[in-house]
């Protein structure tokens, strides 16, 4: 079981796995994205996790964000092998921790849209019912839970329907979870008020934290306090670098606005799991960890 997040010093999460894999020379131009490497180059995934451990990360998020039975099936991967690959994502993170005490593994459960690999993970509203989304998520959640992670990261969730489906899917799994939305300003990516989104976590014992990820750092500033107020839970926050993806130009543009100094305000507002997402690498996580140490 993870520590009680209502007590003690906040934990440092890792940064973006894909950008670290790209820095290692990995080709991620595949519908499975980083999950392809679970089969083709697992040593690269372990090396990426290890880079974040060296930077001071205390929580490693697995490479299973885009790993689904449906996605693997499109590559011709049989269900039994797909289950083994899902479990491998947890094993690689655990191995990268190198037996260090205090380094936790959070198994990533990405949204339905990540499987579609068409950008709909940032829009939500897939035309599926809550029940249909629950049926999609439950099998891989069970496979990941079998591998014994410390937590499940229900992350980059674009709308409240999918959040409700995920929360139903983890009932009885026996692994604590965090619920993290991808947002745009004061709304989910699907356009729903954050108050309603965060309220879904209130009163659910299996949810140890609620918050935001894969968003602009400026949007995270307000969301942290709101998540704590509405849910009554500790908060998880790991935004992007602040750059924006230009789909037409196929490149990141804009300024980096992720600054380790933001940690102080996030922590004061109730954040207990703090890290980075897309384009936030080991150097930024090391700086964040140093700020956290200074705040003790």
UniProtKB/TrEMBL annotation:
Keywords: Metal-binding, Methyltransferase, Transferase, Zinc. The keyword Transferase applies. It comes from the Bacteria. Its cofactor is Zn(2+). Pfam families: S-methyl_trans. It is an enzyme of class 2 (transferase). Zn(2+) binds at residues 214, 277-278. InterPro entries: BHMT-like, HCY_dom, HCY_dom_sf, Hcy_S-methyltransferase. Residues 1-292 form the Hcy-binding domain. One of its GO terms (biological process) is methylation. Its EC number is 2.1.1.10. The keyword Mitochondrion does not apply. GO terms for molecular function: methyltransferase activity. This is Homocysteine S-methyltransferase. It comes from Streptomyces fildesensis.
């Amino acid at each position: 079981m993870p520590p009680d997040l209502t007590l003690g010093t906040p934990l440092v999460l890792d940064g973006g796995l894909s950008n670290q894999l790209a820095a290692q020379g990995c080709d991620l131009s595949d519908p499975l994205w980083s999950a392809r490497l679970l089969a083709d180059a697992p040593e690269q995934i372990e090396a990426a996790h290890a880079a974040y451990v060296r930077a001071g990360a205390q929580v490693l998020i697995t490479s299973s964000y885009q790993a689904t039975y449906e996605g693997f099936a499109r590559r011709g991967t049989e269900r039994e092998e797909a289950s083994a690959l899902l479990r491998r994502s947890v094993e690689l993170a655990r191995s990268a921790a190198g037996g260090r005490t205090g380094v936790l593994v959070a198994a990533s459960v990405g949204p339905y849209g990540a499987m579609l690999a068409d950008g709909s993970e940032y829009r939500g509203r897939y035309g599926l019912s809550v029940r249909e989304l629950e049926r999609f998520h439950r099998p891989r959640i069970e496979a990941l839970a079998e591998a014994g992670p410390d937590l499940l990261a229900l992350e980059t969730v674009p709308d409240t329907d999918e959040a409700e489906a995920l929360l139903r899917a983890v009932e009885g799994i026996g692994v604590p979870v965090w619920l993290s939305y991808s947002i745009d300003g004061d709304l989910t990516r699907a356009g729903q008020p954050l108050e309603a989104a965060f309220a879904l976590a209130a009163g659910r014992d299996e949810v140890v934290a609620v918050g935001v990820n894969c968003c602009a750092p400026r949007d995270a500033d307000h969301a942290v306090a709101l998540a704590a107020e509405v849910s009554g839970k500790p908060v998880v926050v790991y935004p992007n670098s602040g750059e924006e993806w230009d789909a037409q130009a196929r490149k990141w543009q804009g300024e980096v606005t992720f600054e380790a100094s933001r940690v102080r305000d996030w922590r004061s507002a109730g954040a207990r799991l703090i890290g980075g997402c897309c384009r936030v690498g080991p150097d930024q996580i090391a700086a964040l960890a140093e700020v956290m140490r200074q705040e003790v």
